[in-house]
Amino acid sequence: xxxxxxxxxxxxxxxxxxYKLAVxxxxxxxxxxxxxxxxxxxxxxxxxxxxxxxxxxxxALKCYPLLAGGLLTIEAVVIGLTTPVSVxxxxxxxxxxxxxxxxxxxxxxxxxxxxxFAFTKMLLGIRSHLTLCVTVTVAAAVTSAFLDALTxxxxxxxVGLGFYQVFHRFASGKHYDVEHDVGRDExxxxxxxxxxxxxxxxxRGLMMHAAIGTALxxxxxxxxxPQNLLIAKQVGWDFLTFFVRVAPVSIPVFIxxxxxxxxxxxxxxxxxxxxxxxxxxEVLGQYDREQVAKRTxxxxxxxxxxxxxxxxxxxxxxxxxxEVGLIGLAIMVLATSLIGTNDEHxxxxxxxxxxxxxxxxxxxxxxxxxxHDQHLFEPIISAVLHLQGSARLAMFYVANAVLSAxxxxxxxxxxxxxxIKAAMLEGMISKPxxxxxxxxxxxxxxxxxxxxxNGQAAFLFLLTSALAPLIRLSYGxxxxxAMPYTLTLTVTGLAALLRLP
Length: 501
Hints:
About 75% of the residues lie in helices and about 0% in strands. The chain is mostly helical. The protein has a domain of about 80 residues.
């Protein structure tokens, strides 16, 4: 092997050759577009960078997006599409989300035994597949209305991963306690391969229903999503006022969302409707019985302690006693102190799943900095502001929908709410119009953004989690499974919005 071949092999690791060539092509194309595009070169290069970054997300199963996405954003800074200061400012603005990812996900890692215990009981206790899916969707919606969607998704990923590990070990002829690489199927016995595939389909559907549920609940309250808090602050709404003002839109969307969940499971469309195989239910039931049988007094004490910490977590998040990330740090300290963990290496392992995604999120904020610095959304905002009446309300919703699906809903909401606040202060719109447009921004950034993993951090977290490749949840499959929800919820949101007084 020559030195050039060695460099080629090392570049982006085991990614396919065509993917490596595509990334190299992007890196060559961007500065050329900037230089040859004249006065519009920076804008063209900015939109091109966004498309390229979405491509890296779509190919997440070929290569973790941090690598290629990071190279693209480093180049964006070097060629002047944004600055290190802008990237830093976007990162500082999102510090609560970063703290949440680092500490809350790590804290939940030390609660996984009690969470797996509770969800196993629910999974085995609810025999009807339709009832189970609807229950999970409603539970995710209710909890996301008061907690953070990322926290809810982190819990569900932990539980889903626990279920998968149990059955994969069984299907590979291993005992539950044996070290085993669940990412490799070579040891899976032929007898269990079809059941494993069916179990993957079941978990995919359940995780997507739950992720949609976080969006259904997140739109309802001031604390449901980060941008909601920002909108409420600009308009001057408290918790109850926010809920009441958005209820004419959020309640119909919630009802249609639950109906869509039931319909998809009934009709088995878009990859839904795969039931839990009887063999998997039996294995999980046997695992649960074994765990109960061998549970010592110390194990029971650990479950009780974890249950108390979970209760404390819910109360702390519900009352918003501190930033979510700091609550996560407190939960991690309490959990490790009460369950007998004092090993630095085990504590360090808790951070493994969250830190790669945290780094990817900061790279995403660099892309947002490019969008901000190049004012890519300003022409759209200006055009929409010049419309009147219901047309303006509808176009605000649609514009927020489109931009949130390809960008970041927090960023889009920040830009739009700032612009309409300035328009109200300048006398271009009245206070009632301002409040109606605030509802449109809240709905537009929360509901249609489920169309892609780019739109919501919780969806992106699920896509890039350790669970996604195991259950074969790719970017394309996520788009396909979100499509029916996107259509029904977006249309419902728009119809409800146009009925506002």
